[in-house]
Amino acid sequence: MKTRLNKFLADRGVCSRREADRMIADGLVQINGVVAKLGTLVDEAVDDVAVRGKLLTTGRPKPIIIAFHKPIGLITSADERLHDNVITYLGFKERIFPVGRLDVASSGLLLLTNDGRLSEAITHPRYDHEKEYEVTVDRPIKAADLHRLESGLIVLGSRTKTAPVERVNDRTFRIILTEGRNRQIRRMCEEIGYEVIKLKRIRVMNIKLGALPIGEWRELTDRESSLLRDLLREPGKGGLAIAKK
Predict the structure, then answer these.
(1) Phi-psi region of 241 (alpha: psi -120 to 50; beta: other; left: phi over 0)
(2) 3-state secondary structure of 175
């Protein structure tokens, strides 16, 4: 039975389908020694598939999902050729890759998995899954500016979605995003005249960072994994509301 190459790579825990398309376009995937093209079909019974010169084993791996407290300075990439990439830092024995991105200057919760379909379901913007951040800026932030952040701002040519905001103290607030534009929170703060000093992701859907130490990781509990998959099967139920004081 033949399968589209991007789905084959996702099912084998290499990356998400979107990332697979980028890798194929960059010439990093080969089938039977020939550089693959976008849209190629692969027959796992007869075809040899290699990524960056490494032959993939057949069969779907046992699903893995871990929560990692990413330190500032680590690059959220599965490309081990990059200095300070998260995969080399973790040294995980099985093949895993990051679910979405967390920029190099930010810290906090990063999920990693070998399940490409799960990664795609979490990160695809059409599902509006929640990601919560704690943000510290360079000076006391006005209530009116918190309201502007919550209501939406023009960033990269279009208005951001509404995003619940809660003040923590004079310079710190929490915000929930359901989209993932490049450096979105930093750009939003710049738009209203603030500089982000510290940015930490504290939740992805139902998975919380909690007290996990910086640089450490843990496997999700059975309860967390079960609820996560339930949420992914129910569009529009992608997270938890900020707990108001």
Answers:
(1) beta
(2) strand
What are the b/e assignments for 61-81, b being 16+ CB within 10 Å? eeebbbbbbbeeebbbbbeee
H or E stretch covering 17: helix 17-25
The count of residues in the chain is 245
Q: Encode pLDDT of 90-132 as tens digits.
A: 999 888 999 999 999 999 999 999 888 888 889 887 788 999 9
pTM: 0.77
Closest CA to 42 of 66, 7, 15: 7
Sign of torsion over alpha carbons 203, 64, 12, 84? positive
> Which residues are catalytic, by number?
103
CB 98 within 8 A of CB 86: yes
Where does residue 216 rank: exposed (0-12), middle (13-18), buried (19+ CB within 10 A)?
A: exposed
